[in-house]
Write a structure and sequence with these properties.
This protein is mostly helical. It has a domain at 1-21 and 197-283: Serine Threonine Protein Phosphatase 5, Tetratricopeptide repeat (Alpha Horseshoe). 71% of the residues lie in helices and 0% in strands. It contains 14 helices and no strands. It has helices spanning 3-14, 49-57, 62-72, 80-99, 102-116, 119-135, 139-159, 164-177, 184-196, 201-213, 217-230, 235-247, 251-264, 268-282. Helix 6 (119-135) packs parallel to helix 8 and helix 10 (201-213) runs antiparallel to helix 11 (217-230). It is globular, with a radius of gyration of 20 Å. 38% of the residues are buried.
Length: 283
């Protein structure tokens, strides 16, 4: 197995396990021709939520289609805002609980948050997008996730400008979502949080991912190393550490950290892929 494939397989199995509650996500720009964890990057593609919803509905049963149509047409005269807010919550629950489709769930959760306009609802909805952004490898989806999160986080920061978690999440959108030609726009606020509070592991993670994405592997290794030192059982950080050593060509340390990950990862398939990569590096 090639190194890139290993990263996709192991990363999908290890990182952000909560995302897999929703099953396979829907991307209209992906051709579903093979069961991989990520399609080939399509940096020029544009993700359209309307198309996502259309494709999602095509997978529904007749009973589910009837249910979703009834919900979408349920707003009547009166307190339209409250009705719309309630409707968005119902639609979000439908896509989460009945269909387990992430994008529609996140979209309607975000629409409800915009109407509610409270810091709690805005940051909750934003983090749905950011958590997926941290695990996503396809540029078009990264951009879509980051753009949606950015809108919500900017509204949340208007309410509470001192929320470090919101600042870091917004920084992640700039660093990982390619929503600006100037990634420093996102890096600086996150770096300021990390310098002020080195124990903020979320800031260290985002900076590490930024370094990894930009090919600054030594800087990324430093950040992931801080996390592992503070959190010796952080499987996510250890896997990123191994990958960074692998990417920079340091076989000794790559093998070392892949071995550490293999000892504690619970997934049999992941262990097998790790063994394959370790053997390739040793050979």
């Amino acid at each position: 197995m090639k190194r890139q494939q290993l990263f996709l397989v192991i990363g999908g199995l290890v990182l952000f396990a909560g995302l897999f509650f929703f099953g396979k996500t829907i991307n209209p720009n992906k051709k579903e021709t093979k069961p991989t964890t990520s399609a080939e990057p399509t940096s020029g593609a544009h993700v359209d939520i309307k198309e996502i919803l259309v494709q999602a509905k095509q997978r529904l049963t007749a009973e589910q289609v009837e249910r979703i149509n009834a919900l979408e047409n349920s707003v009547v005269r009166g307190d339209v805002k409250e009705q719309q807010l309630h409707l968005y919550h119902q639609l979000a629950r439908f896509w989460k609980d009945s269909v387990k489709a992430f994008e529609p769930y996140a979209y309607y959760t975000a629409e409800a948050a915009k109407l509610d306009n409270s810091e709690k609802s805005l940051t909750f909805a934003a983090q749905l997008f950011v958590d997926n952004l941290l695990a996503e490898s396809e540029p078009s989806m990264q951009h879509w996730l980051a753009e949606n999160a950015k809108v919500l986080l900017e509204k949340a920061l208007e309410i509470n400008p001192s929320n470090d978690s919101s600042k870091i999440s917004l920084g992640a959108c700039y660093i990982l979502g390619s929503i600006s030609d100037n990634p420093m726009e996102g890096i600086l606020p996150v770096r300021q949080v990390a310098e002020r509070n080195p124990d903020n592991m979320y800031a260290q993670l985002v900076l590490g991912l930024g370094g990894k994405k930009s090919g600054q592997y030594d800087k990324a290794i430093e950040r992931f190393g801080i996390i592992v030192k503070k959190q010796p059982t952080n499987l996510e950080a250890m896997l990123h550490l191994a990958e960074c050593y692998d990417l920079k060509g340091d076989k000794v340390n790559a093998i070392k950290w892949y071995e550490v990950v293999k000892k504690i990862i619970p997934n049999t398939e992941a262990k097998k892929e790790l063994d394959n990569r370790i053997n390739q590096l040793k050979g």
